[in-house]
Amino acid sequence: SPDQFRAWAKPPRAEEEEIVAGDGFEINLDDITGSDDINENVFDRAVEYCRNGNVAYISVINGIGTAFVHGTEWYEVNFRLDNALLTEMYCECPYPGLCKHLIAVAIILNSLVKEGLDTEKDFVAIDDSYFWGFVARSTNKITL
């Protein structure tokens, strides 16, 4: 679950820590670069994040998505997924626009859809390097 992954990946946040979240962004998974809100340099950094496996976890339950992206620290990304449209996108990073974390999540979702993911169904996706790292540290039995 997102809460379980959050506990594994992110340290507790200090209560006084302020989060600046973007508002009103939408990304169409069929045309990610078509959004006027995407800065080319930020897009290039998002692609690099995808190549490096920084998008560690994505889940969508009843159309509500949560993702965890590792950059200088762990950032939680929240969104609504309706068919191929990401809306109500928020990232807890301090970047004031459509950030590389949000764009990287959209790129990974686009890739999963191209591989046959049905966005109408609930799903969880974990980057394989993070998954095996958690398995290696786990003292509990994991059944697949």
Describe the protein's architecture and organization:
It is a single chain. The protein has 144 residues and is α+β, with helices and mostly antiparallel strands. The chain has helices at residues 2-9, 40-51, 100-114, 128-137, and strands at 27-28, 55-61, 64-70, 74-82, 85-91, 123-126. Helix 2 (40-51) crosses helix 3.
**Fraction of helical residues:** 25-40%
Distance between the termini: 15 Å
Q: How many strands, which pairing sense, and closed or not: the largest β-sheet? A: 6 strands, antiparallel
Query: Mean of the pLDDT scores?
Result: 82
Number of helices: 4
Q: In order across it, which strands form the biggest sheet?
A: 1-5-4-3-2-6
Whole-angstrom Rg? 15 Å
Task: Spell out the key features of this protein.
single chain, six-stranded antiparallel sheet, 31% helix
Concise structural overview:
This protein is α+β, with helices and mostly antiparallel strands and 144 residues long.
Helices and strands, with pairings:
Blueprint: H1 2-9, E1 27-28, H2 40-51, E2 55-61, E3 64-70, E4 74-82, E5 85-91, H3 100-114, E6 123-126, H4 128-137
Antiparallel strand pairs: 1-5, 2-3, 2-6, 3-4, 4-5
